[in-house]
Design a protein that fits this description.
CATH class of chain A: Mainly Beta
Number of strands of chain A: 5
CATH architecture of chain A: Roll
Strand order of the largest sheet of chain B: 4-3-5-6-11-10
Number of strands of chain B: 11
Structural class of chain B: alpha/beta
Strand content of chain B: 15-25%
Strand order of the largest sheet of chain A: 3-2-1-4-5
CATH topology of the largest domain in chain B: Rossmann fold
Number of domains of chain B: 2
Shape of chain A: globular
Helix content of chain B: 25-40%
Helix content of chain A: 10-25%
Largest interface: A-B, 42 and 53 residues
Radius of gyration of chain A: 13 Å
Order of helices and strands of chain B: HEHHEHHEHEHEHEHEHHEHEHEEHHHH
Distance between the termini of chain B: 42 Å
CATH class of the largest domain in chain B: Alpha Beta
Strand content of chain A: 35-45%
Order of helices and strands of chain A: EEEEEHH
Oligomer: heterodimer
CATH architecture of the largest domain in chain B: 3-Layer(aba) Sandwich
Chain lengths: 97, 369
């Protein structure tokens, strides 16, 4: 449960006082809370995201490699939940919403 | 400078395994306290590769597995309430309660929804003002900042129909409980990388010193784990007992300040039952008094429930390293991922499910007790 998925920050915005951003996970995009990395990330950066929260900034190569490793280890459960939620249009907002 | 590509290179892992074998003058006993690491170790067969040098005990590192039965039963009761939309991470849905699981409650008409993030649950509450939305807040320190933020945000936005059923646990008290047990065999730990990405490792320093055990902060990929084992064995052979960081690319000693601050603002340490293990003092997080309005147990007056653990399930012995999953009489016959007796057979990070999914049940006779 503690793994987290690396993704690329596409854009950042303020949602009623909370720093959020659209993050791309190998083609699946969703809003993520960036508050815990405020001041340390910007669009184009990569971050490890755990249950909708960016918990650590990572280098691009590291992010790609980890994503592939998670795929190989069949440990992308979080991505499945993300897809399931996205399919039901419950994801809690898109860019610019 | 270590190149990132090394982490994928099987020859690096093989080289490290050879070095561990050369280094070990005896068979050391190590425990990993991270379900992701357990999954990787069993899937890749790292424990079997190193079996002559290291015994790996799979510790209570799967939050789904240690969530106490009473909290599961409370979740089931809330999920059956027609006024409630019950929300949870996906891997809690098939955890058996005293009488059924969340999937069965959903089949009988309960509104149970999988969410990816606790903020999704909060959003659901905002969109459904006539319903009570309850989120099942489980997890270790990695997940605590997310769940803390959902509660903090609900208060900030004045969302009155949102609450959380909390069953958070923290790693260091569980390590102390394991090391303090009279029959403890663990001589060193791999600590969970992402727990430490949030919390740092200062809490582990007094544990390493007091109990004279090496603790190596370790990632979850195969080469990470083999390197973590190597560092722990090297300390043991040299008679050292320190906190060492294998997972340098993600973890700093102090952790992530803003996340720790919000967790401390919303949660406080409480005593917590660990399923199969019992109560560990100060091992859980509960909502602070200022956030009690968002505590589902308080809002719905749940009180204390009587629970019935399945007598045949020996998950507690597995979680404490006294029994390997395939040594349990129910393993693979009366207990399978399709019909689990206990939580470690449910979660992909549970030791029992990992043994089952990666074919360990075939080796029962060879492995012995």
């Amino acid at each position: 449960m503690c793994l987290g998925i690396p993704g690329r920050i596409v854009e950042m915005h303020d949602d009623r006082g909370l720093l959020m951003g659209l993050v791309d996970f190998g083609g699946v995009r969703r809003d993520v809370c960036l508050a815990y990395l405020a001041g340390t990330v910007q669009p184009g950066d990569y971050a490890v995201v755990h249950v909708g929260f960016a918990i650590s900034k990572v280098a691009e190569e590291e992010a790609r490699r980890t994503f592939e490793a998670l795929r190989e280890l069949s440990q992308l459960d979080e991505l499945d939940w993300m897809r399931e939620v996205a399919e039901r249009s419950l994801a809690g907002g898109r860019a610019g919403e | 400078m270590k190149y990132l590509s090394e982490y994928r290179d099987p020859s690096v892992a093989r080289g490290l395994i050879t070095r561990i074998r050369e280094l070990a003058t005896r068979r050391w006993v190590l425990m990993e306290v991270c379900g992701g690491q357990t999954h990787t170790i069993v899937r890749q067969g790292l424990d079997e590769l190193l079996d002559d040098s290291v015994e790996m005990i799979h510790g209570p590192g799967c939050p789904v597995c240690v969530t106490p039965l009473e909290q599961i039963d409370k979740a089931l009761r809330l999920a059956a309430d027609p006024s409630v939309i019950f929300t949870s991470f996906g891997d809690m849905l098939r955890v058996p309660g005293s009488e059924c699981d969340l999937l069965q409650v959903r089949a009988r008409g309960g509104e149970v929804r999988v969410v990816y993030s606790p903020l999704d649950a909060l959003e659901l509450a905002i969109r459904n003002p006539s319903k009570q939305v309850v989120f099942f807040a489980v997890g270790f320190e990695t997940t605590a900042p997310a769940n803390a933020m959902a509660v903090w945000r609900a208060r900030q936005l004045g969302v009155r129909n949102f609450s959380v059923l909390v069953s958070h646990v923290t790693v260091p008290p569980a390590m102390i409980a394991i090391l303090s047990a009279p029959d403890n065999r663990v001589q060193g730990f791999l600590a969970a990388g992402h727990v430490c990405a949030v919390m740092g490792w200062t809490e582990y320093e007094p544990i390493a010193a007091r109990y004279r055990v090496p603790i190596v902060v370790t990632g979850f990929e195969p080469v990470d784990i083999v390197e973590g084992i190597y560092l722990a064995v090297r300390q043991l052979e040299e008679g050292r007992h320190e906190v060492e960081n294998q997972y340098v690319r993600s973890v700093r000693r102090e952790g992530t300040g803003p996340a720790k601050s919000l967790v401390a603002e919303v949660f406080q340490l409480v005593n917590r039952q660990w399923r199969g293990i019992g109560e560990i003092p100060g091992s859980g997080l509960g909502l602070r008094e200022e956030f009690a309005d968002f505590d589902a147990e308080y809002r719905f007056g749940l009180g204390t429930l009587q629970v019935n653990e399945p007598a045949e399930c020996r998950a507690g012995d597995v979680l404490r390293g006294r029994l390997k999953p395939h040594e349990c009489a129910a393993f693979g016959c009366r207990c399978t991922p399709e019909h689990p007796l206990g939580a470690p057979m449910v979660s992909s990070e549970g030791a029992c499910a990992a043994y089952y999914n990666y074919g360990r049940f075939r080796h029962t006779q060879r492995m012995g007790v």
